[in-house]
Amino acid sequence: MLVVGPNGAGKTNLLESLHVGTQGFSPRTRADAQLVRFGERAGRIGLGGKRGERAVELEVTIELGEGKRAKLNGASLRAAEQLRSEVATLVFTPDRLAVVKGGPAVRRAYFDRVIGRLLPARAPMIIEYGAAIAQRNAALRRASGGYSSRDAIGPWTEQVAALGQQLVEARTEVVAALAPGFAARADELGLPAARMSYDGEPPTAEALEARLERDLERGATGLGPHLDDVVLTSGARDLRSFGSQGEQRLTVLALLLAEAELIAERRGFAPLLLLDDVLSELDPDRRRVLATRVLEGGQTLITATQASSLPMRPAQLLEVSPGLVRAA
Fold first, then answer.
1. What's residue 268's pLDDT?
2. CATH architecture of 97-268
3. Pairing between β-strand 89-92 and β-strand 272-275 as defined by DSSP bridges
4. CA of residue 220 relative to chain centroid, distance
5. What is the pLDDT of residues 62-101, one digit of tens each?
């Protein structure tokens, strides 16, 4: 599906609404109040479609001061984010280049979300590890300030080591699963010898104890997967430092396409792909490669300023003007 319209017409708003309606949250902001139209007190997104042969109806309602409510096939959900277990959605927006050119924290967050989509049973462990780190850091600061003994740090050291090992294992598994598809899709898009590798080791209680004095001085845990990184390279070049903006864009696209294939393989249905302004900086050959690849997958929505940006006829063409979407 191709969505066209001039800049500022609302193409990105349409894409964002599809993400909120299928995932329960915005890819742009965590402030739900920003999703409601200016001057209004509430907003609603209703979607209908099929997952395989099964009909699916999704609904998300946002009321200022009341929070967010979601329904799946008419049944209320405990949390809107539970929609993710029913429909998988991957999104590309220009600010997603931060996954490549940003700091390690951005890549950690990205790959932890991938764990949630590919290994959903292990997703709670990510939150549990973050909580354990916060508790250990608080215990370090209390002990350093003389408000508690060092003995209070020990149980949290054990927790951080155990959960940290599980998190490193999950991240390593996801990176290994994505790597072949990432390399293949990147090569198709003209980014040769693309590789990804996990930069970090599972923490141990012994290693954490060995650096306890330094951690007490800093008031923070200086070892563990909260400091690790995923390195993305093309040949010998680290794409964060030595990739052009065009290459960084291709890297993010290759990541999305590789994950889309894995989701389809593991969950039995292809994800919804939302590609915002993805064609504007691709040359004609790469546009054709991308269009051919998404045509082979599940449903994809691409936004562009003009229909000629897509080098093939879309299954559906929509035109967006302020406040209106119509079939072209």
1. 87
2. Up-down Bundle (1.20)
3. parallel
4. 27
5. 999 888 999 999 999 999 989 988 889 999 998 999 999 9
Q: For the chain, which ranges sit under pLDDT 70?
A: none
Contact 46, 68 (CB under 8 A): no
One-letter identity of residue 34: Q
Query: What are 317's two structure tokens?
Result: 């063409």
Q: Give the whole-angstrom CA distance, residue 3 versus residue 145.
A: 58
Contact 3, 64 (CB under 8 A): no
pLDDT of residue 73: 95
| Residue that the structure tokens 């864009």 belong to | 249
| Predicted confidence (pLDDT) per residue in 200-223, tens digit | 999 999 999 999 999 999 999 999
> Domain spans of the chain?
97-268
Structural contact between residues 183 and 216, judged by C-beta atoms closer than 8 angstroms: no
Strands 317-321, 272-275: pairing is unpaired
C-alpha neighbours within 13 Å on the C-beta side of residue 176: 6
Q: How far apart are CA 315 and CA 328, in angstroms?
A: 11
CA–CA dist 145, 322 (Å, integer) = 58
Enter the tokens of residue 299: 């449903």
For residue 119, what pLDDT is reported? 93
Q: Sign (positive/negative) of CA torsion 232, 192, 2, 268?
A: negative
Q: What is the pTM of this model?
A: 0.92
